[in-house]
Amino acid sequence: MRPAFATLALLAALLCPAAAGARAWQGIEPGRSKLEAVVTRFGEPTTRKARGQKSVAAYKGEQAMPGTKEVQFACRADGVVEEIVVFLASPLDAESVEGTFGKATARTFVETTFQKVWLYPQKGVTVFFDKEGAVEIISYGVPVAGKAGAADKAAGAATAEKPAAEAAPANP
Fold first, then answer.
1. Could you count the other beta carbons within 10 Å of the beta carbon of residue 106?
2. Residue 58 to residue 14: CA distance in whole angstroms
């Protein structure tokens, strides 16, 4: 097996859910798991920040999970994880995403950069591509039920901003 393919296969296994309809990432399920479960599984986060009505716990640097540069867990006020944003350490290709999740239900783009975005609303998954066309971010959220909800999410994604990694603290 070629080293690049082996690395890609390892990343796909680490980052993507095992079952086709699975919504969980590394045992944490958006809409059900609480931040306490995240801390129990991964330890204290590198940072915790308020972002509007949500709080975000981020694991980055030496605390980043294998295969990632950073992972953010966005939680509601009651501590339930609503979204998991995974910033990949090595980009994935579109074929790997389709092999894991199937064909995207909807395809759109980030309006400000024209970078493509694939949506899997019934699975709660959104895939963001970089300027070269490789996958750089996978977001796991609460699945949207029904085709009407999927269309609404697809329409909103075109104007949504791509998730941003937490800024690293500056060294004095």
1. 17
2. 18
Enter the DSSP assignment of 144.
P
Q: Which two tokens stand for residue 21?
A: 């309809």
- What tokens were used for 33? 């798991």
Decide: helix, strand or coil at residue 119: strand
In this prediction the pTM is 0.76
Going by C-alpha positions, the residue among 143, 102, 108 that lies closest to residue 125 is: 143
Of 25, 70, 75, give the one whose Cα is nearest residue 51: 75
Per-domain residue ranges of the chain: 26-157
- Encode pLDDT of 122-159 as tens digits: 999 999 999 999 999 999 999 987 554 444 444 444 44
Tens digit of each residue's pLDDT (9 = 90 or more) over 37-63: 999 999 999 999 998 889 999 999 999
